[in-house]
Design goal:
Elements: H1 9-19, H2 32-35, H3 85-94, H4 104-112, H5 115-124, H6 133-144, H7 152-157, H8 166-178, E1 194-196, H9 212-215, E2 223-225, H10 247-259, H11 265-276
Amino acid sequence: MPGSENDSAEKIALGKELYFDQRLSVNNSQSCNSCHDVANHGTGVDNKALSPGAIEGAFGTRNSPTVWNAGFQSTQFWDGRAADLTEQAMGPILNPVEMAMPSEQAVVDKLADITEYQDAFNSVFKDDGGLSFYNIAEAIAAFERTLITKDRFDDYMLGDKDALTALEKKGLQTFINTGCAACHNGPLLGGNNLQKMGLVNAYENQSDQGLFDLDNKPASKMLFKTPMLRDVARTAPYFHDGSVNSLEEAIEQMAWLQLGKELSEEETTAISAFLKALTHTF
């Protein structure tokens, strides 16, 4: 993954410790893994429409995207506001709804009271300032750069013609012929562009306007990052608002919203079979 050439085993181990540490939240109740679960071959999400935050009764406003393969994407967050994993890792810690820490300095001061962290940062970042908010995020990013899936579609693309079943191959062809690959392309089948949600037919939920809520430019209305499809079968519910529970329904809605096409049951079943072939094989 880009950037991993500079990640030592010690740096990755520190990042993993931080990723699972609930002390990064204001009341010691929330870790990165709370919303992006990778423990015991976890899905990289919490499989909830919207994620609960550290403060009781507080919920995020967008569905938690998977952390698997995240560092291969062109940008981070649904609206692409972070350039890379390090910048992304800073956001939830300070977000008042998510981990709710009051300031960067408060995070540093909290970890500074933990001897093990002081020693680890002085070792890993001895030439880069030791314990700092940026280095906390950079260590977490180093761990996240190890989260790479592998699936049978990889084997198929590498020449194993039997890696996919006949139905999955039909689904791949249907996926291409229908036009899905116009946006869901590249190694991740997505994650590399922002597209209007409801390109042909308007999306019902207009309360979240995507990138427009960030830059206030009319052309940005309903622009969201095209989700990666690698491992997609494990990451329900779907869409930025977590409104769709099944993969088949998501396929049908996307065809209608983005392409103006009504898929047959046979087409939906085939595309679903192909997408399930993208499931991570541990």
